[in-house]
């Protein structure tokens, strides 16, 4: 399994608020399955980051595609790439 880092910004605050509960349910499902490592918004509320565990980039992309924030165009400027931890542990 590889780690993937997803960073993103938000489009509309109202749509984000509307979809937040669905998004959190989805993230908690991923956490239970072992696909989610950590997730959270930037302190200033302009975007967020998610660390995923997946077999490959296609699997990570599928996870991102299933997120209600992605499905409902809440996020923008999504950037997903494989991530290598060199200091510390997850």
What topology, given as strand order, has the largest sheet?
A: 2-3-1-4
The helix content is 25-40%
Q: What composes the largest sheet?
A: 4 strands, antiparallel
Number of domains: 1
Strand fraction equals 35-45%
> At the fourth CATH level, what is the homologous superfamily?
Dimeric alpha+beta barrel
Structure description:
The chain has a single domain, classed as Alpha-Beta Plaits, CATH 3.30.70.1060. It is globular. The two termini are 12 Å apart. A four-stranded antiparallel sheet has the order 2-3-1-4. It is α+β, with helices and mostly antiparallel strands. It is built from three helices and four strands; from the N terminus they run βαββααβ. 14% of the residues are buried. The model has no long low-confidence stretch (mean pLDDT 95).
Question: What is the fold's blueprint, element by element?
Answer:
Elements: E1 2-10, H1 13-33, E2 36-41, E3 47-54, H2 57-66, H3 68-71, E4 75-83
Antiparallel strand pairs: 1-3, 1-4, 2-3
Brief account:
The protein is an alpha+beta fold and 90 residues long. The chain has helices at 13-33, 57-66, 68-71, and strands at residues 2-10, 36-41, 47-54, 75-83.
């Amino acid at each position: 399994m590889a780690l993937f880092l997803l960073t993103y910004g938000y489009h509309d605050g109202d749509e984000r608020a509307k979809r937040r509960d669905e998004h959190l349910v989805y993230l908690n499902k991923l956490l239970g399955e072992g696909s989610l490592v950590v997730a959270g918004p930037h302190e200033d509320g302009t975007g967020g980051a998610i660390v995923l565990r997946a077999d490959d980039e296609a699997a990570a992309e599928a996870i991102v595609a299933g997120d209600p924030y992605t499905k409902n165009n809440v996020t923008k400027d999504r950037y997903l790439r494989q991530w290598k931890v060199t200091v510390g542990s997850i």
